[in-house]
What we know:
With 459 residues, the protein is α/β, with parallel strands linked by helices. The chain has two domains: 2-47 and 312-455, Beta Barrel (Lyase, Ornithine Decarboxylase, Chain A, domain 1), CATH 2.40.37; 70-304, Alpha-Beta Barrel (TIM Barrel). It has 14 helices and 22 strands. The strands form three sheets. Strands 1, 5, 14, 15, 16, 17, 18, 19, 20, 21 and 22 form an eleven-stranded mixed β-sheet that branches. Helix 2 (48-67) packs parallel to helix 9, helix 4 (104-115) packs parallel to helix 5 and helix 8 (231-250) runs parallel beside helix 9 (275-293). The longest helix has 20 residues, at 48-67. The chain binds pyridoxal-5'-phosphate. The site of pyridoxal-5'-phosphate (PLP) has 16 residues, from strand 13 and helix 10.
Amino acid sequence: MKEHLISAHEIRLPNEFSIDNACLTYRNINLLELVKKHGTPLKFTFLPSITHKIKIMKDYFKLAFDVNNYKGKYQYYYCTKSSHFNHVLRTVLSADVGIEISSACDTDLISSLVKTGDLPPDTQIICNGYKTEEYLTGIFKLIRDKQCTILPIVDSKSELERYIEYSKTLTNMSVGIRLNMSYISSYARESRFGLLPEDILYHYNTGIVGNDNLKLTTLHFFNDKGIENTDSYWTTLAEVVRFYCYLKRINPDLTTLDIGGGMPFKDNLDHNLHISELIFRMVAIIKDICTLEEVDEPDIITEFGKYTVAESTGTLFKILERKKGNEQDWAIIDGSFITHLPDTWAIKQNYPVLPINNLENDLIPYTLGGITCDSADFFPNNADTKAIMLPDTHDEQFVAFFHTGAYQEALSGFGGINHCLIPAAKHIIIDENALKEIVVSTFSERQSSKNMLEILGYQ
Ligand SMILES: Cc1ncc(COP(=O)(O)O)c(C=O)c1O
């Protein structure tokens, strides 16, 4: 074991972390005090991180536009599916963004924000995803209510037919179309989303051209592997932009390219993502192709989910026990990866993990185990991630997973029934007031056994 020893001072910590009195602080918040006060497992969401990330992204685009002499505009959209919580949506909306939604219930979420006055008038709403009858009803209601600007993104032929029909009773409806990317050789996979180029052209020519009430303004695509600095991503983007130019020549109403989500977040502490370089290259490619094709460069929309919210949240556990193993030692957390951080189990997602206290001790490697009976309930569980380093001590120990703010509650089902009836963690919100002082409030207490039994039909 000895050869694995490191000291806490050898961990390279990003600026938002420091070690104070052998305890970890995050943005000057003493995490040991937090867990002592609120208990574990505990989720905290630091709201200012969200607006900060949005601002940085807007700045990156502005710089890339200026340097490339790019004429289009940039609009940041937040995709609700990465975190639907009201405190997240209200924070996001304070940063002048549009919202991307993906289901019928999402339209009710928008109506609710309108009712409470949290949705600024004329906020742009993009409606993505498959449109069920219920979803279409919600979209048409939002259009009629005129409280925000609605842009449905057509995912199928039958959906487009509904808008063509609806446009007979309405003026000035705009839609986008999602491009099915299966035809692009560098994309190399089959996709069920959107329409192939020939179908887009056919439907444009038969249903949209000459229809004064219906405009196709936006081409949408989503690279499901995310935005990454790889030849395959850049080649795929270039193909999409070429099709945009082709469509633009036929359809002058086309003004916008929606490049979807997929901007990465920091899933380990060493990660230097070079996001400004990704944005710069993206803008340069779009500009160059449009110049060659003699087409006005499009306005650009992004729908960043995990980029916006992942880094706002941390999930804190107590170590219940350490156990000797054959090849590795185990530390058992007072929660479950399957319940509290399901992406670690489902897609082998990595997160930055740090011990919270006892940092005067040397650190030794452990695999963390959850308290369910499930042999898959452990972390790390992928070859890229090294063991978790914990202080070599018998004292009470806490550990923090950072950047856990995207998708985890939506996937595990916040407040529902989870594996082995492990309850949802207590969740607190951390914000700053006008004087930049930290304000902590409780969003939800730890889920009760009573709540679970009620859901399951027990009295
Ligand atoms: C259409 C669309 N837009 C945006 C997103 C957000 O992706 P991310 O959280 O990777 O930014 C998704 C995620 O599935 C999506 O399907």
